[in-house]
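Because showing beats explaining, we let one protein speak, sequence and backbone structure tokens together, and leave readers to judge.
___
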Amino acid sequence: MKFISILLVTWTVYLAAAVPVQEDSFRKGNYPRYIEMPDGDGNLHTVDLEATPDYELLDEINRNPANNQYLLFTRRNRRSSQTLTINNANSVTRSNFNANNPTVVIAHGWLSNQNTDINPTIRDAYLGKSDVNVIVLDWRRLALSDYATAARGVPAVGRGLGQFLTFLNRVTGAPFNTMHLVGFSLGAHLVGNAGRELGGRVARVTGLDPAGPLWNTNSNRLNARDGVYVEAIHTDGSTTGLGIGSAVANADFFPNGGNSQPGCTLSLCNHNRAWELFASTVTRNHLVGNQCSNMLQVSSNSCRGNRLNMGNDDLRKSGSGLFRVNTGRRYPF
């Protein structure tokens, strides 16, 4: 019996060491234990925010960032991707990657993959606008696990992305100040961690309705130090919404108040509206917010401060504060 107790303690210590996750950070906060969350196709799944994570998978994700795919699209290959592999220089030098062009990385959310709508939508907006390298990060190995596990593995995947971009910089000379990292939901916190891995040197980090459940008080969440300019677009930030409702970036935009969106009746629609709005601004750069002094002004639509364009593809963009922007019901909003 004593031997079994020692074995259990040893195994617990191993797991804690193998997965350097600040477990106390992942608290459910105001959320109920069970919530409904959508996958990349819009199907709802019941999530237990107090579920025991899959520590074996988290250990694997921590040890092997090469689990993730980096899929390159350029104007020379708009629809057929080329796979870039970390620590394989030939995969980059033989591809269409052009270090003289800006690089945009897109990271999807939970239960999603390279084919989820966010990826082709933002990819096509960028390639239709200018000659850039678009890299779609497919992190399905973790993203297809239960939410409690996926959330805890996000920092490791983000660090892996940062290591991949360091490799890309070393092989091609592509500067960090021409890189823009864009992530949706869990992917928003992922790209934040990637920017942190790079010491905040990337030109821009954009969080599209950063995930709320398990992230409200989480030290691993997206923050203003993750890039030269960090922006968040909040579209489903009510107390039980899928997105985080508080300011986390240099500039935080709250379209239509940030809780519910015109033309939407479901939280899923509100949540997805973030990447739909962003893609439209890449093409048109037409949605402009007014700076607000506080969240009361955001919710009452009484912001009268400085104006700042939401989203877009400007690598030299700057600004700080809370911003309210009002949009239409349908694309291009």
Observations:
- The first strand starts at residue 34 and ends at 38.
- The mean pLDDT is 92.
- DSSP finds nine helices and 13 strands in the chain.
- The domain at 24-325 is CATH 3.40.50.1820 (Rossmann fold).
